[in-house]
Amino acid sequence: MYKIALFILFSLPLFAGFFPQTVHTSVKSVKGNTITLNSRFPVNGMSGVIVHNYGSGLTAITSRMTQVSSGGDASLLSADVIDHDSLPTIKTAVRAGDKVIGGYLYNNILVLAPDADTYARITSANNKKWIHPDLFALYLSVQGDDRPTRENLANFSKKFQIGLVYIVRRNAAVLFDPISGKIVGQKNMSGLPKEGAYPFFMRFEQLDSGWFGSDVKGNYYSMVESI
User: Fold this and answer.
1) CATH number at residue 130
2) pLDDT digits (tens, 9 = 90+) for 1-52
3) What does pTM read for this prediction?
4) What is the domain range of residue 151?
5) Residue 18 lies in a domain
6) Same domain, 216 and 112
7) Which of 72, 79, 217, 224 shows the greatest Cβ crowding within 10 Å of its Cβ?
């Protein structure tokens, strides 16, 4: 018997320490826009996806959600879970028993760093699927945005299947979940440059749009604190 899949589901590894663990659980109950999980996520603010089984080997992601309490309560988010104009919008309601993957795509991480040395230090120390900030810079250029915001990080992450943004702040690093808009990890960080490339480290001296480059003024650390 062959299986038809509307969406490819990844079997995500467990993280430890700074990186929240991915959780595979299910929906215990549904009340309006709030659901209760059978197993809670390790950190409030973690987002996840809900997977419905239609039978005959047919499954699909039907919604996004984020945990809002340590008791395992979560809020349903917008249903635009598949960023593809040619695919239909899934309208299946969330039901008790649906599977939940908390920390979906958390292994795919965009890095916003002040310089190349900091970026190399982060990516060499952790075995993740690192997304280079060059790709995000090109996306911002096409969109006409001059700096990262919660909104363009969320849109970029949905489009390119990114689960977390690793943001280097002054003397610290945070893990930002772009879907929930929450910080889900934080740690101290030393050996950072006094000033950073603005708006963040990338390998382009200047893009054709003119929004990025040496002529752009701003403080990297102040900018990332506003995200």
Assistant:
1) 3.40.50
2) 333 333 333 333 333 479 998 999 999 999 999 999 999 999 999 999 999 9
3) 0.85
4) 108-225
5) no
6) yes
7) 224
